[in-house]
Amino acid sequence: MNIRNMLPEDYDAVYALWRSCPEMELNNLDDSREGVLRFLERNPETSFVAEEDGQVVGILLAGSDGRRGYIYHAGVLAEFRGRGIGTALIETALEKLRAMHITKVGLLVFRDNSTGLRFWEAKGFQAREDLAYRSCTLREITRLQ
Q1: What is 2-144's CATH superfamily?
Q2: pTM over 0.85, yes/no
């Protein structure tokens, strides 16, 4: 397995991987080619793919606002799960964020994604009961089914 920075030309394989994950929530703007390429322009060194025999089998988008790091849309193809690919992607991203002097990393997981919740908790990501998440939509998005 090889882990490397995600490149714009990886988008089709990454999008297909995301679509293969039933627990993945995608939308028409942020997860479009344009949205992901815009994200990669702002975060060229913190998003990674895992490859096996030239096939993208894992993905982890991560970024930073200069103070905090954030993880978005991590996934591994179902037939490759349980091999440590997700863990390797996380460790790679966290190492890069540490090198950028980021001290805390956050992520969001939908409450009904029990697989994701268990995975992230096992990796040391804890629920914050002292926070209430809020958002404000600036452009209408459509969740993809």
Answers
A1: Gcn5-related N-acetyltransferase (GNAT) (3.40.630.30)
A2: yes
